[in-house]
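Lecture notes, unit on protein representations.

Consider one protein chain, 467 amino acids long.
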Amino acid sequence: MQLINVRLYFCLLALVAVTHITGRVAFAADTNSPERPNIVLFIADDMAWNDAEPYGHPHIRTPNLSKLADGGVTFDNAFLTVSSCSPTRCSLITGRYPHSTGAPNLHEPLPADQHLFPEDLKKAGYFTGACGKWHLGPHARRGFSKIDPNLHAWQQFLEERPAESPFFFWIATTDPHRPYQPDTINQPHTADDAVVPPYLIDNEETRQDFAEYYDEIGRLDEEVGQIYATLEKQGLLENTLFVFISDNGRPFPRCKGTIYDTGIKTPLICHWPAKIKAGERSKALLSTVDLAPTFLKVAGVEQGETFQGEDFNDVLESPETSHREYVYAERNWHNFDFWGRGVRSMKFKYIHNNYPENYDTPPADAVRSPSFQALVSAHAKGTLEPQQKFAFVHPRAVEELYDIVNDPYEFHNLATDLAYQDELENMRTQLADWREQTQDPDTRTPIPNDFDATTGERTRPTPTSGK
């Protein structure tokens, strides 16, 4: 007994020494804590930030997202680093901006040298599982204990995981990505439910396009409900951080692929009964590049030097806390060649278009949509409203500045308005500083387009990387 006490004494002395030297408790003490939460990251595919009940949509039925929001905190100012499927995923899993991941363009696989936050969780004793849409390439697979393309594989993961281990699940649905199918949910939305923004033409075809998009959000909501109910039934919900986001804006013209809020603003709901007060709302400005360090923080895992985001655990504890003054986003190749950068504050948005001679063509699936074809037809007839001409302007402005508070649709470019030159210069400076800090290249080789900009028909072979 005395020998055991002596060993315990020296172990405690060593722990105190490590704490004194490093200013934190030893790594092993953190990872063995019984308080480490499970983490579920649910990623929607092409869902706008405000197309759900918690964000005030009057007609889309998302009772399970509402349940998640009612039991947690809903963020009103969360932003993506890019409005494109695979670059968003590569940014999320590395905690880095797309140009820093080595995979900034659509369908590019994540390079082998990139550090992944699920790797850190896995090494710290977490069971890590990924199911549903992948789109990251082969090298990211090393971050997970199990990977399954079946969206519902999270159920199997729960059965297979070691009972004593916390888990991290990366659950990526393909809803509400195009193409749409009939009878997606039992009670389909109708054309009358559509809320058509002013940059699109409000006709029956566009409204039906929205109704089918809403149905896929309804199906997505059902999956969220199944996960929630299963965690609750198994007694896991209390200490699970359940996070819901989207990878980019809705797959409609002037949304997905752009740096406008319709492209980069994301729903973000965090539910964690053990730590987060129910029914909270936060106006804090957040970036999805902040998720990786936040997950590591709540798991008691030290954040490495590769991460470019900022942990927002303090906002989870106190939603009224501010977090960032600026968020940053980029626009890269997505079916068509673009190269642009943007910075946003709570009041202003600044966009710099490096390829202003390129038309503002939406992604190919949106080009083929009834919503875009209605714009093409009206353009040919000369009947488009000014805010509906965005895809046909040539050349585009090199600089764009918007007062987000008074112009939420970003219709009125203030970059040449003398009254806003101070703000323009400030936002230019903020963007330039960020680009320097993150080593964003000054030059880039143009990439050929894959599709026809009017019909959406493929003009180059289908890429196979990044799947």
